[in-house]
Write a structure and sequence with these properties.
The chain is mostly beta strands and 133 residues long. The chain has a single domain, classed as Sandwich (Immunoglobulin-like). It has one helix and eight strands. The longest helix is centred in the first third of the chain and has 18 residues. It is elongated and about 45 Å long.
Length: 133
């Protein structure tokens, strides 16, 4: 009995912490998630080693579960930059920078994701831009 009581107390504490860490929120209507990419702009051109500002605003009427930003090559989808944050908010302001170190010119895709649910459901917006060597 002496072993059982501390075990039950410990199990209850783990359960409470787990519930509080990331509990279920109301379902988010994907059509009400707005992603605005403010930098770079569609079709913008940069030189290799330019400092590219990545700015976006994500808003929703419901609680989102985070965001992600990905830059990849348009031709082969090779990921060149990837960053994400897990947080619970109705809005996010993303302000990052990236310096491409490509050896040749490339057309790139910037995709900004809003994590709608923990099960992996996401909403995203993309733009394309170029880097010239």
């Amino acid at each position: 009995m002496r072993v059982l009581i501390p075990f039950l107390i410990g199990a209850a504490m783990v359960w409470v912490i787990g519930i509080q860490a990331c509990h279920k929120h109301e379902k988010v209507d994907e059509s009400l998630v707005n992603i605005e990419i403010t930098s770079p702009s569609e079709g913008q051109s940069f030189k290799v080693n330019d400092n590219i500002l990545i700015r976006a605003n994500i808003t929703s009427t419901g609680i989102l579960h985070g965001w992600a930003v990905q830059i990849r090559q348009k031709g082969d989808n090779q990921i060149l930059f990837n960053q994400s944050v897990h947080d619970h908010k109705r809005s996010f302001n993303i302000d990052l920078s990236w310096k491409p170190n490509l050896t040749q010119s490339a057309e790139l895709i910037l995709e900004v994701f809003a994590q709608v649910e923990h099960d992996g459901k996401k909403v995203s917006k993309t733009i394309t831009f170029q880097v010239h060597s």
